[in-house]
């Protein structure tokens, strides 16, 4: 195997593929990165057996040459050193060569690295998804769906199914839902092209977080294929495969109250900043509890209290407050997460009393829903 | 006590003073920050009893008003919350008020924080330096002196004296020296104004690192006073007091060879980048050892070797090589630290054989000296 490659292209691909490579894996060769040279380009592969990522660098694209002098072949390189070496090489191009004894030479300018490779034949064959069932989405929309929901997954392994995000595609509506049983985040969008439906698959939150980091903010399409135990995200040069979580995701729709006793309309950023400040004195308590009190149908008071340290109080003007007066306590962290996910200037918050879950939504947009369970305070 | 202060001024001062405040201190009140309001301005104080920092915000400077409506008084506030509160306040001004029950109110816009203060009378009196013996330096020069030497101090408590930087002021020459007994860094500069001399004081490395972070890169003067157990750095609005280390600093001058067998002139950045790359494959070894070999009076080869992983080789062209051929091994980390401290385009490296310490200096500048002990390799 031999090729000469543009260093910046190689760096970008190596970074993407590294997201799937773990130093802790039961299969030692998976701590390495597979490099395959074919006439038409170079493919890098990394996997921790939960997530597998392939990144492809075409020999030529858009009239630009990225890889030259390709001699076909493949090798596995230790991933611990390879990214740093590539990043620090002196020239704009890199020559990579592997001989029949699995000795790899990396050259750039006068710098030469000789590394011990491993036989690519010993690298596990990645499962190829046997399905034509897929749908398409804009990449930046997918990133938004992930960002607006994945923070609400559970980080505790007591209910493993809650460490994933629930995906549902029905009637050309795609819905992401995440909950840790104290709060819930969901987002729904219409999908144009779809030849499948599924009612409930669960993608590990870790997979979605890594995918989010790799994807560019572009309106290019991303193709998503689903089988009963895997999900594949595919763009032009990227192939991201994740296992699905086993188990039944809880029915969340009945958590969402369909009535409300108090409705608050308020500027998102005002509320966010006020709660952020109040949370500074809510730290003593594990739950970072702050209290919200409506006042005279126009004003909201946010307070927090740490007996040893002191208290914070701040009033903000609401756009409007409808219904009953309210005093309610909740986790400032959950509220901050939810408000950050809203991405609209104004929010509508629907309460059904101090002990019932409440709902946060953008005004005039029901596709984003954030739900938080209040905290009892005495 | 009461005053209204520009928030950005307060933030900057609080950040500086926080550098001296530790959560681990034998004297509980030192986890707090002392605030004193006087007619002419506000003084903040923090101390961990090794380092004490005072920052002063004048009521007015350069025709700008920074503090208004001052009612004199003082209070101690818990430092754990105060900086975050000030940073997150909504408006450009902050009102701080303490009542006779030590209740402190911080107001900005509609945000109000009520904190429990402590009696400033209980805050330890900082030792005032009783001396007129001082000298002056440009602040940016002092920062340079620190940066070029402090990295070479020992981090091990086995020889506490080596965790400090040795300062010497004789014949209007100020010299900083640091060594961990494997390498040494020193820098000497002339001082214009000085009414003292001292042959050997040792300032804790930690103090100099904190001072470095606080000082601005300005050519404004900084006044330095020294007694037998303390050193004071004073600028217009800052007062930085550190204890000195007890003990005798080792005589380092005889470590420095006065002859050389091989002299190498080379571009600093070329050598730095090459060693940086080679160090990637020197990690297996605790000492990050790389090897330097002179070749044909014109070329230097840098190599490293990690038996399990592979080897790196790179040649660089020297400006010139004088004297005997040489093979020498040394810690890449020490060499990188030394080269970064040089700050000149070209370096001169003087070797006295593979087993003797070698010296790195800028070409045509003897005021900066870096010394490294080689590593035996077999």
UniProtKB/TrEMBL annotation, chains A, B:
<keyword id="KW-0548">Nucleotidyltransferase</keyword>
<feature type="domain" description="DNA polymerase III beta sliding clamp central">
    <location>
        <begin position="136"/>
        <end position="251"/>
    </location>
</feature>
<dbReference type="Pfam" id="PF00712">
    <property type="entry name" value="DNA_pol3_beta"/>
</dbReference>
<dbReference type="InterPro" id="IPR022635">
    <property type="entry name" value="DNA_polIII_beta_C"/>
</dbReference>
<keyword id="KW-0963">Cytoplasm</keyword>
<dbReference type="GO" id="GO:0003887">
    <property type="term" value="F:DNA-directed DNA polymerase activity"/>
</dbReference>
<dbReference type="Pfam" id="PF02767">
    <property type="entry name" value="DNA_pol3_beta_2"/>
</dbReference>
<dbReference type="InterPro" id="IPR022637">
    <property type="entry name" value="DNA_polIII_beta_cen"/>
</dbReference>
<dbReference type="InterPro" id="IPR001001">
    <property type="entry name" value="DNA_polIII_beta"/>
</dbReference>
<keyword id="KW-0235">DNA replication</keyword>
<keyword id="KW-0238">DNA-binding</keyword>
<dbReference type="InterPro" id="IPR046938">
    <property type="entry name" value="DNA_clamp_sf"/>
</dbReference>
<feature type="domain" description="DNA polymerase III beta sliding clamp C-terminal">
    <location>
        <begin position="254"/>
        <end position="376"/>
    </location>
</feature>
<keyword id="KW-0808">Transferase</keyword>
<comment type="subunit">
    <text>Forms a ring-shaped head-to-tail homodimer around DNA.</text>
</comment>
<dbReference type="InterPro" id="IPR022634">
    <property type="entry name" value="DNA_polIII_beta_N"/>
</dbReference>
<comment type="similarity">
    <text>Belongs to the beta sliding clamp family.</text>
</comment>
<keyword id="KW-0239">DNA-directed DNA polymerase</keyword>
<protein>
    <recommendedName>
        <fullName>Beta sliding clamp</fullName>
    </recommendedName>
</protein>
<comment type="function">
    <text>Confers DNA tethering and processivity to DNA polymerases and other proteins. Acts as a clamp, forming a ring around DNA (a reaction catalyzed by the clamp-loading complex) which diffuses in an ATP-independent manner freely and bidirectionally along dsDNA. Initially characterized for its ability to contact the catalytic subunit of DNA polymerase III (Pol III), a complex, multichain enzyme responsible for most of the replicative synthesis in bacteria; Pol III exhibits 3'-5' exonuclease proofreading activity.</text>
</comment>
<feature type="domain" description="DNA polymerase III beta sliding clamp N-terminal">
    <location>
        <begin position="1"/>
        <end position="127"/>
    </location>
</feature>
<dbReference type="Pfam" id="PF02768">
    <property type="entry name" value="DNA_pol3_beta_3"/>
</dbReference>
């Amino acid at each position: 195997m031999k090729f000469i490659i543009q260093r910046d292209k190689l760096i970008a691909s190596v970074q993407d593929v590294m997201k799937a490579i773990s130093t802790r894996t039961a299969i030692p060769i998976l701590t390495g990165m597979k490099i395959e040279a074919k006439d038409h380009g170079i493919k890098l592969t990394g996997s921790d057996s939960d997530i597998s990522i392939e990144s492809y660098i075409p020999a030529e694209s858009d009239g630009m040459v990225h890889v030259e002098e390709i001699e076909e072949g493949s090798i596995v390189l230790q991933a611990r050193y390879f990214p740093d070496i590539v990043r620090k090489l002196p020239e704009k191009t890199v020559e990579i060569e592997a001989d029949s004894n699995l000795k790899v030479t990396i050259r750039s300018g006068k710098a030469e690295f000789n590394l011990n490779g491993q036989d690519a034949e010993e690298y596990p064959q990645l499962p190829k998804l046997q399905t034509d069932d897929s749908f398409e989405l804009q990449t930046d929309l997918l990133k938004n769906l992930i960002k607006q929901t994945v923070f609400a997954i559970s980080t505790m392994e007591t209910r493993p199914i809650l460490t994933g995000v629930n995906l549902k595609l029905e009637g050309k509506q795609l819905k992401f839902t995440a909950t840790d049983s104290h709060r819930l985040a969901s987002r729904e969008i219409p999908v144009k092209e779809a030849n499948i439906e599924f009612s409930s698959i669960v993608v590990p939150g870790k997979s979605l977080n890594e995918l989010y980091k790799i994807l560019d903010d572009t309106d290019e399409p991303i193709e998503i294929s689903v089988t009963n135990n895997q999900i594949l995200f595919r763009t032009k040069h990227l192939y991201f495969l994740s296992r699905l979580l086993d188990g039944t995701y809880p029915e969340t729709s009945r958590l969402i109250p369909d009535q409300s006793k108090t409705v608050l309309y308020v500027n998102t950023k005002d509320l966010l900043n006020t709660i952020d400040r109040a949370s500074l004195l809510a730290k003593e308590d594990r739950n970072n509890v702050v209290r919200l009190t409506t006042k005279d149908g126009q004003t909201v008071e946010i307070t927090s209290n740490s007996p040893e340290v002191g208290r914070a109080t701040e009033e903000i003007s609401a756009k409007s407050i409808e219904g009953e007066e309210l005093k309610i306590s909740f986790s400032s962290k959950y509220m901050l997460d939810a408000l950050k996910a809203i991405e609209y200037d104004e929010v509508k918050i629907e309460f059904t009393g101090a002990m019932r879950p409440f709902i946060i939504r953008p005004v005039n947009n029901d596709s984003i829903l954030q739900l938080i369970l209040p905290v009892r305070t005495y």
